[in-house]
Write a structure and sequence with these properties.
This protein has 60 residues and is mostly helical. The chain starts with a helix and ends with a helix.
Length: 60
């Protein structure tokens, strides 16, 4: 009877440990994606401004 209770407790601890690791990975991935989106947006804005400068030559 005690073995079943111990096995259940160990399973719960194992599951909790896995959940902690998964949450940490999600948190780090979220930070990575947030940083990456900032870089992509700034790159897009820079390219758009360069294109506007090129088009501006035709209207002067």
């Amino acid at each position: 009877m005690d073995n079943k209770g111990q096995a259940s407790a160990e399973f719960i601890l194992l599951f909790g440990g896995i959940m902690v690791v998964v949450l940490l990975v999600i948190y780090m991935y979220n930070n990575y994606i947030s940083d990456l989106s900032g870089e992509v947006q700034s790159k897009e804005v820079k390219e758009f401004n360069e294109e506007l400068k090129i088009l501006g030559k035709y209207f002067k």
